[in-house]
Amino acid sequence: MTEMDAGLVAEQIVQSDQVNEPTSRSEVGRPRRRKEDTRLLTGRTQWTDNLSRPGMLHVMYLRSPMAHARITRVDVSGARDLPGVVAAFSGEDFAAEQGSLPCAWPVSDDIVIPDHPPMAVSEVRYVGEAVACVVATDRYRAADALDAIEVDYEPLPAVLDMNEALAEGSPKVHEAGNKAFSAKLTSGDLDAAFEGAPVVIDRTYVQQRLIPSAMEPRAVLADTDGESFTLWTSTQIPHVLRVMLAMVTGVPEHRIRVIAPDVGGGFGSKLQVTAEEVLGLLLTRKLGKPVKWTESRSEGNLTVHHGRDQIQHVRLAADADGRIRGLQVSLLADMGAYLMLVSPGIPMLGASMFNAIYKMDAYEFACTGVFTTKMPTDAYRGAGRPEATFAIERMMDELAAELDLDPVEVRRRNWIRHEEFPYTTISGLTYDSGNYEAATDRALALFGYDKLRAEQSDRRDRGDPVQLGIGVSTYTEMCGLAPSRMLGEANYGAGGWEHGAVRMLPTGKVEVITGTSPHGQGHVTSWSQIAADALGVPFEDVTVLHGDTAIAHKGMDTYGSRSLVIGGVAVLKACDKVKEKARTLAAHVLECSPDDLEFESGAFEVRGTESRKTIQELALAAFTAHDLPDGVEARLDSEATFDPENYSFPHGTHLCAVEVDTETGMVKIRSYVAVDDVGKVVNPLIVEGQVHGGIAQGIAQALFEEAVYDADGNLLTTTMADYLLPSAADLPGFTLDRTETPATSNPLGVKGVGEAGTIASTPAVVNAVVDALRPRGVHDVRMPCTPERIWRALNDGAQEGARP
Amino acid sequence: MIPAQFDYARPASLDEACQALASDEDAKVLAGGQSLLPLLRMRLAYPSTLVDVGRLPDLRGVHDRGDHVFIGAMTTHDEVVRSEVVTAGCPLVALATAMVADRAIRHRGTFGGSLAHADPAGDLPAVVLALDAVLVARSASGEREIPAAGFFVDYLESALEPGEILTGVKIPKLGAGWGFHYEKFHRTAQSWAIVGVAAAVKRSNGAITEARIGLTNMGEKPLRARATEAALRGVELGDQVRLACEEAAADTSPPADLHAQPDYRRHLARVLTHRAVRTAAGSP
Fold first, then answer.
1. What ipTM was predicted for this assembly?
2. What percent of chain B has pLDDT over 70?
3. In this structure, are A261 and A362 located in the same domain?
4. What is the mean pLDDT of chain A?
5. What is the mean pLDDT of residues A715-738?
6. What are the C-alpha distances in Å from A475 to residues A78, A357, A442, A649, A677?
7. Where are the alpha helices (DSSP H) in A288-376?
8. A219-224 and A229-233 as β-strands: parallel, antiparallel, unpaired?
C-alpha cells in the first residue's frame, strides 16, 4: 500500500466515525474517541521503563548462548569488582529461594511439568535462558560487566524437531523424556465416517513459530520497604501474577502489590509469570533497594514466550456432494523447553474448534505436547483457535477443489443454519447464537465476489503472469475465557470470573474499578460507556481504575477476548447494585415505596408525579448520611463478580483477493473484506481498531513472520531486520462491516472481538495464495508464504514451498 | 542493546575531523548513524572514538556543477529526494533514494554514510556504480577522487583509507536520450532489498545504444551486470531485451540468508533487470 492509500484509509475511518454518530442518547453503541489517547499520544505515559525510584539500581541478565548444556561453572567475581557494580549473582545464589516458574494448566493425567528455575542452576535448555545477572548503578555499567562473568558449559545435544524428539533414542530435553503430555477427544464413530467415504482429504500443515512483538518491550521494577514488596511490570495479569509470585517465592500474598502501569500491548505475551518478575522480587529482597530491568527488542525476541508452532495432520471424509462425514486431527505442539503459565493449554484451546461452524458425524482430536530446546511457547493472540481455524478453513478449500465446487458453496452445505441455534457441536460446545448466512452474504456483496471470479478466470485463460487468487474464511471462535466450571473440568488452575466495582463519589462522579487489565484495548472508554448508560450519568463523569492490586484488588485480568464479555458485564452488574441501593434511599427521601419509583435518565421519579431525585443527589445524601433509613449503610458503592455460563462465539466471513506475481512469487493483497458478528457493540470505533489490528496480525502470520532457529538451536530472527513485521505501508485498506446477532449468554449481548481478526485472516490469505496457484498444480504453500517459497512451489510443486 | 563504551568527538572543521581520525586508528566516522548505531548497540562494532561529522556545514548540500551534480556526503536522503538539482541532473539517484528504508530513516540517514558503509544490500552503492560516479575523500594529506568502480572493495569495506572522510560524490549528468529506473524487491517497505536493479538506458531511433546496470545485494559488493549491458547494445525493444537480461546474474555471487537463497536471487536478478531495463527504456 502506498502512503497515499494509508491516508485514504485513515480518512475512511474518520468518515465511518461520523456516519455512526448515533441519534439516541445511549452511550453504548457510540464511536467514542478513547479517553486514554490524549495522554498516551502526548507522551504523558507511565510505561514501567519511565518509572524511577530513589536509589534505583539496574539489573541486566547474562543469557545462555547454548541451546542445551550443563553448566559446570559460573564465576561472577570479575563483574563484582567493576565500577558501578553493586552485585552479581548466578543461579546458585537464587537456588534456595527462587522456586519454579508455574504452569497452571496440567491438561492431562500424563503431563510432565519439569522444574523451571527462573535462573538456570545446573542446565540450560534454550538460547537466552538467564544464567547470571549484574546489578549496577546504571544499565551501561551492568551491560559492560556482563562480559566479565565466566560461564563454563558442557554442551548437550540440541533437540529441535518435534518428530525427531519423539523418536526412539532421541536426546532428551528433560530426564522424563520429550513428551510433555498427550490428550484426546473423540465424538461419534470416526471409522464409520471414513469407511467408504467418497472423498478423503489428508493434509499436513505447519503452524510456524511466531514472536508476539508487543510494541512495549517488557520491563520490571521491584521495590521494598523492608516488609512489603511492590512490583511494577509490563504485564497483562497483575492479579494472577500476585498470587503466583506468592506461591513461587513464599512471600506472603498480602505483602505483595503488583502494578501494571501503562502497558503497550501484549497479544498474550504478557500473560505470563516471567523469570525476570520473580528475580526482580528476589533481587530487591536481597539488596533492599529498588531494581529495574528493561529488555531490548533482541532480548525480547529470544525470551518473550513464542506462539503457535504446531504440526497439524488433518484428515477429512466427505460425501460426493461435499457434506462432511468426519474429521480427524492429530497435532504435535512444540512446548519449547519448559511448560510456562498456560503452555499446554494453548493447543487444547483449539481442541473443540477444528470442527468450527460445520456439522459432521464424527470428530477426533489428538494432541501431543513436545519438549524441544527452544524458547517455551504460550498464549499468542487467538491461542489455539487460529491454529484450528487455519486447518479447517484450508481443508474446506481443499474439499471444494477436490469436488470442483465453489469454496463458499461447500461451506454453505456444511455450516450450522441460523435457525438451528442454539446448536451443540460434534465437539460438545453449545453455540448460543449466530448467522453465518447473513455475514457471508454481506461479505460476498461487499467483495464483488462474482466479478473477481470472472477476472480470475480471464487471467487464467490469458496466462497472465500475475494471477488472481480468492481466499475464503468463515470462522467462529470460542472466547470470553471462561466459565469457571468449564475451566475446572479442563483442569485449569483458576476460575474465569471477573470483578467490577463502582464508587459513587459525594459530588456524583463515578469511579469504576475493574479486574480487567487493559494494555491497549480501551477499557477506560468502553467501561465508561457501560456505566454512563447504567447509572444515567455523563460519560465524562466516569473514570475507570485498573491494573493495581491495591486499588483493583480482585480480578482475573485481560486475555482471551474476555474483558468485555465478563469484565464489562461485571461492571454492569455492579452498577445495577448501585441503583438498587439508590432506590432504597430514594424511596426513603421521597417518602414512597421503592416499587413506585422509576429510574429514567439518571434519576428516580415517583411514578405519576414530578417528585424525583438524581443519582448524584442520592450519592451526596449517602455521603452526608444525615437521613438514612435504619440499617442502611452510608454508601451506594457496590461490587459484583460475574461468571459466565458459556463461552461466547463471535463469527464472521473474511474474503481476501491476492495478486501473485508468478515470475517473482510476490503476493500483493488486492482487497480484503471482513464482516464480523461480535454481537452487540459498545464502541464501534474500538471494535474497528481491534479488527484492523487483528487482521494485520493474521496476515503477518500468513505472509511475513517466522521465528527461525538454526541447526544448533540459535534463534536467527533476533532483530526486526530478520523477523519481518508488516507495517501500515505493507497492508491494504480493509473493508469492514458487521452483522449483529446478540450473544444470549450475557446481559450486554456482547461476544468479544480481540482475537477475531487474527483467527479469521490467516486462512483467508493463504487460501487466496493457493487459489491463485492451484491451476499450476500447487495445493499448499508453507507459512509464511514468502516470495521465495511461492517461486519454489511454482517451479517444483512437489516441494510445496518447503524451506530451502 | 547497549553499546560498549566509546569516546565522542564533534570537530568544528573538516581538518579537525581528519586529525581526529588520523590520531586513532579505531575511530569511526558518525554520519546519520542509521547503520552504525545498530552495529554499536548489538556490540558488533567496538570503535574507540566516534567522530561526529554532523555539524560540519561544508559536507551538506547538493550543487549543480555543470557536467555533474555534486552531493555532499552529509546530505540526508530526504534532502536528496527533494532536490530539484538531483531530480533534473541524476534522476536515478532520486528514484532509488526515495526507496531507501522508510521516511524516518531518510530524514536521518545520509547519502555519503550509506556509501561509505559499503553494504551491498544498500540501494545507493549500485546506483553510483551504475552511473560511474566519482567519490571524493579528504584526509590530513589532502583530497582524493575515487571512481565508484574502485570504491567498493568487499562486504562493508570501501577504498577509504584510515583517516579519510568521504566528503561528497560527483554524479555525471547523462544528458538527453537516457531513461532510468530502480527496481527494488523487498518483502516489507522497511526491509533491505533482496535484490535491487538500477538501470540507466539510452535509446536512439528505437534501439538501445547504451545500458548501465547496477545490482544490489548480488555479491560481496555492488556489481555491474556487464554481460547484459553488452548484450543490450544495439538491441530493439522486445524479445531480444529479455534474452539480454537472462545474462544479468552472470558473474554474481549472491548471498544466502533468511530472505533468499542464491539461486532465487539469480532468478530475481534476471526478472528484475528485464523490468528495470524495460521501464528505463520507456516501455513498461
1. 0.96
2. 99
3. no
4. 95
5. 95
6. 57, 7, 15, 10, 10
7. 297-303, 345-348
8. antiparallel
Sorting pLDDT into bands at 50, 70 and 90, what band is A11? very low
pLDDT above 80: residue A656: yes
pLDDT value at residue A25 = 80
- Specify the pairing of strand B68-72 against strand B62-64: antiparallel
Domain that holds residue A580: 497-642
Q: Are residues A680 and A760 in the same domain?
A: yes
Chain A residue numbers touching B190 (CB-CB < 8 A): 720, 727, 729
Residue A427 corresponds to which cell in the numbers above?
A: 465437539
Residue A519 to residue A516: CA distance in whole angstroms: 10
Distance from CA of A488 to the nearest CA of B (A): 43
Phi-psi region of A398 (alpha: psi -120 to 50; beta: other; left: phi over 0): alpha
Q: Which residues pair with A313 in a beta bridge?
A: A204, A330
CATH architecture of B179-280: 2-Layer Sandwich (3.30)
Helix segments in B9-118, DSSP class H: 14-22, 36-41, 77-82, 84-89, 91-97, 103-108, 111-116
Q: B271 and A792 in contact by Cβ < 8 A?
A: no
Give the pLDDT of residue A105: 97
Residue A151 CB contacts under 8 Å (≥ 6 apart), including other chains: A62, A71, A73, A74, A75, A131, A132
Contact between chains at B194 and A787 (C-beta distance less than 8 A): yes
- Cell numbers given for A461: 485463460
Q: Which residues share a beta bridge with A510? A: A504, A542
CB atoms within 10 A of CB A661: 18
Select from B5, B38, B267 the Cβ nearest to the Cβ of A144: B5
B271 contacts on A by Cβ (under 8 Å): 663-664
* Contact criterion met (CB below 8 Å) for A259 and A547: yes
CATH 3.30.390.50 domain extents, chain B? 179-280
The candidate with the shortest Cα–Cα distance to A466, out of A804, A703, A794, A800, is: A794
Give the burial class of A309: count Cβ atoms within 10 A of its Cβ; 0-12 exposed, 13-18 middle, 19 or more buried: buried
| B138 beta partners | B143, B165
Per-residue pLDDT of B49-75, as tens digits, reads 999 999 898 899 999 999 999 999 999
